Amino acid sequence: MAAVIRVEALERVYRIGPVSVPALRGLDFAVPAGQMVAIMGPSGSGKSTLLNLLGCLDRPTAGRYFLAGDDVAHKSSDELAEVRNRRIGFVFQNYNLLPQLTAFENVELPLVYGRVGRAERHRRADEALAAVGLADRRRHHPMELSGGQQQRVGIARAIVGRPDVILADEPTGNLDSVSGNDVLQLFHALHEGGSTIVIVTHDEEVARHCQRIIRLHDGQLVRDDEAPARNLTATGEEAEPC
Amino acid sequence: MLIDSLRMAWRSLAANTARALLTMLGIIIGVAAVIALVSVGQAATQSVTAKVENLGSNMIVVVPNQAQGVTLHVADGNWLLATVPQISAVAPLLEGGVMSRYGTKTWSTTLLGTTPPSEQIQGRSMSAGRYLVGSDVQLRRQVAVLGATTEQNLFGGLNPIGRTIQVDGMPLIVVGVMNQSGGAGITSNPDDEIVTPVTVAEQILHTNNVAAFMTEARSSDLAPLAVGHLQAVMSRRFRSSTAAEVVSEDQVLKTLASLTGTLTVMLGGIAGISLLVGGIGIMNIMLVTVSERTREIGLRKAIGAKRSAVALQFLIESGILSLGGGAVGGALGYAGALTFTSALHWPSGTSLSTVLLALVFSVAVGVVFGMWPALRASRLDPIEALRQG
Lengths: 242, 389
Ligand SMILES: Nc1ncnc2c1ncn2[C@@H]1O[C@H](COP(=O)(O)OP(=O)(O)OP(=O)(O)O)[C@@H](O)[C@H]1O
Ligand SMILES: [Mg+2]
Known about the structure:
The complex is a heterodimer.
Chain A: E1 3-16, E2 19-32, E3 36-40, H1 47-54, E4 62-67, E5 70-71, H2 77-87, E6 88-91, H3 103-113, H4 118-131, H5 147-159, E7 165-169, H6 177-192, E8 196-200, H7 204-207, E9 212-217, E10 220-225, E11 230-232, E12 238-241
Parallel strand pairs in A: 3-8, 3-9, 6-7, 7-8
Antiparallel strand pairs in A: 1-2, 1-4, 4-5, 9-10, 11-12
Chain B: H1 2-14, H2 17-55, E1 59-64, H3 76-83, E2 87-102, E3 105-114, H4 117-121, E4 126-129, H5 134-138, E5 143-146, H6 148-155, E6 164-167, E7 170-178, E8 193-197, H7 198-205, E9 212-217, H8 223-238, E10 244-248, H9 249-292, H10 294-302, H11 307-343, H12 352-378, H13 382-387
Parallel strand pairs in B: 3-8, 5-7
Antiparallel strand pairs in B: 1-9, 1-10, 2-3, 2-6, 2-9, 4-7, 5-8, 6-7
Helix pairs in contact in B: 1-11, 2-9, 2-11, 2-12, 9-11, 9-12, 11-12
The structure holds adenosine-5'-triphosphate and magnesium ion (MG).
Adenosine-5'-triphosphate binds at residues 14, 16, 21, 23, 41, 43-49 of chain A.
């Protein structure tokens, strides 16, 4: 299968005045289409830095990054905005929904910036909300939703643009275990539907649901386990590997 | 895209109505002040200009400098007419404050002693009866012609013609009433005066020194020449360059008109400053808004908003604020100016162009002062922005 993500000798050095902080020091890996990957590692190991690069929010200081075969390292900020809009779906730890908009309008927002026509936009936003099981909450504002529901709206917003890859930084970090589990199930369903997903997590439990675990330490890739994911059953027992 | 931006800007403003209204207040006051002051100024200019046009006279007034001992008498009118070829008519003016009485009503007013040519020189017209005639002056007839205001106050609707009034104790028979002057005339209020033959006025005012001569230039082209010539003959006769003050009323009113025009510009400028302050208020609030909503901006960029889209959203927000303020302020300013000018019986000075100009200006203020905050928002780095809050 073609790699959706491919990085070569990827480096990111933060400069604070005269001080250089190398957050990533030469990463090489590829993520084939349809894979669900966990990125793990201790705090400060560079997970968020990596995800920001993969999400085209940031540019590497050295190395190359191909997203769906396209070299994105040297694009202008407006071109990167377009790449984020069309190819990437973000899920944030703290949801990042706009409080003045309804759930529906939040989900619709990427399509507004993608200049999708009104009718098509509404259809797809409704579809995405239905996919996360919140069709009946479309008119609710974020404040009127539980944390788990807000994160599901966030996921609907991430998938509404049919991105090449879904990137999530600690998506269950703010949730209790029940809502966290709901969200994980949702990622699972998306994975089953063929989506490519990269999740940064501290939680081994979350990682166990992924096909592959990339471990970082001090900005370097220290382990890359192609561990077969285990499906969750209703009782939480381990099921057959896929 | 524009419709969506409008909708989003509207949502953001609606999320903090109180702040939006307070921000608008600066623009409301600014625009209202500009429209009200400019309108009142224009009304004042129009009313003065109307007087100049009504007047259409070529009246030139010669005021002897009595403080320097320069005195003129009624007979000197003929001397002026004979020596200054550019003038076609002359009338003396004796003037003084008097107390007039009819029955039990008394009224303090101005007495004007003059001769028949003053009717034409001042451009007066009669609403009832007649003006002075030559024989009134020669025979010292004790007659009076009243200004409209004087007539109202002494007679209050009664037909005054043929009735006798007392002016500082002297009985005068009313022979005529003048129309509203429309601005013409030599006294400060030409509708509140009593005109009597100059020979009678000499007795009432106990003087035969003429306060001024009213003369008429043969044409408006000749008026400046006439002014110079009158000045010259007076200077020569009394051996002093300051023997007399010679002014054409046309000139006075034109000066006044240009003065009120200048005043309008000044008032508009002062009001414009308040509009500017309103604009700075918008900029201030938009900067606060941008920094408060850093996270929102980061999120919008993360999901694909380009710089232009972010800038547009904030520009539209400040545009809505200033347009809303402009509309409300425009209505208030218009109402205020109308109340003021109608109370003064001035022509309404508010033109559509003033209102449109103020609206366009207020939107321009919003866009100009919203530009910096909007650009600041659009330049935010998405990761930095998302990290905040
Ligand atoms: N904007 C920045 N400026 C300077 N240094 C930074 C910046 N962002 C991250 N770093 C540094 O880069 C390194 C990696 O940070 P990063 O946020 O990627 O870690 P992380 O693995 O996501 O940690 P955590 O699990 O705590 O979220 C850290 O040493 C951090 O101090
Ligand atoms: Mg992190």
